[in-house]
Amino acid sequence: MTVPEVHPALAGRFSPVGFDATIDIDDQRVDTLLDAARHAPSAGNSQPWMFVVARRGDAVHQRIVPHLARSSSVWAPSASLLVANLAHVTIEGSDGWEYSEFARYDLGQAVAHMTVQALHLGFDAHQFRAFDREGLAAEFQIPSHWEVTSMTAFGVSAHAPGEARSPGTSRERAGRSDITWLRADRTQG
Ligand SMILES: Cc1cc2nc3c(=O)[nH]c(=O)nc-3n(C[C@H](O)[C@H](O)[C@H](O)COP(=O)(O)O)c2cc1C
Fold first, then answer.
1. Domains of the chain with CATH codes
2. Whose alpha carbon is nearest atom 14 of ligand 1?
3. Chain segment 147-167, per-residue pLDDT in tens
């Protein structure tokens, strides 16, 4: 039996390291990306996510760009949209009590929803850590019970998949058997 194919959006997805700076994203599509995040499941429906949203050239974008690391500052500013991804990690006013055991897990899932939705809208996405987390938190007065976890650049890639990579990264994937700890032998009933 042949193995059914992975959904083309997932199989074709890649993280561009160059975005077409002539492509804008409109507010309606940004709303759709936020709605995709809203649809994500979360532990106890805790929805431990929040986003700082910046369209290229707007006032928020101008405040985000100085906090990019040298590496991401090469490619991220030309993306149509930069989104900082925030996780609700502790309970406000508590002595550091965890808000949800799964806060970062759930945030990642909401971001994954956004990236797949973006593909459906014709936009690629590149998630990244290469920016000043503390600097961004201070810039936007993010309360300490929220963590600035990662960012996502959304836009249309300026290059074909595999044509350009961030230095030191590879797109090679571990095999199916490498990621399967245990699975019943399919040759036996
Ligand atoms: C949480 C997270 C952090 C990442 N941080 C960076 C980063 O700082 N810089 C970068 O260029 N790419 C970053 N990436 C992108 C990964 O390097 C990329 O997804 C991986 O190499 C696989 O490549 P692909 O997305 O093209 O399949 C990050 C991805 C994730 C999910």
1. 24-128+138-145 (3.40.109.10)
2. 128
3. 999 999 999 999 988 777 766
**129 touches ligand 1 (CB under 6 Å):** yes
136 CA → ligand 1 middle, Å: 19
* E strands present in 121-183: 124-128, 146-155
In the prediction, which pLDDT does 188 show?
A: 61
pTM of the model: 0.96
* Whether pLDDT at 189 is above 60: no
Pocket test for ligand 1, best of 6, 83, 113, 127 (most atoms within 8 A of CB): 127
Q: Which residues are paired to 49 by β-bridges? A: 87
Comparing CA positions, the residue from 88, 66, 92 lying closest to residue 77 is 66
Give the distance (Å) from ligand 1 centre to CA of residue 127.
Answer: 6
- Ligand 1: atom nearest CA of 14 is 26
- Distance set, CA 165 to CA 30, 76, 99, 169 (Å): 26, 13, 36, 7
User: Is 127 a pocket residue for ligand 1 (Cβ < 6 Å)?
Assistant: yes
Work out the burial of residue 154: count CB atoms within 10 Å of its CB; fewer than 13 is exposed, 13-18 middle, 19 or more buried.
buried
Higher per-residue pLDDT: 187 or 145? 145
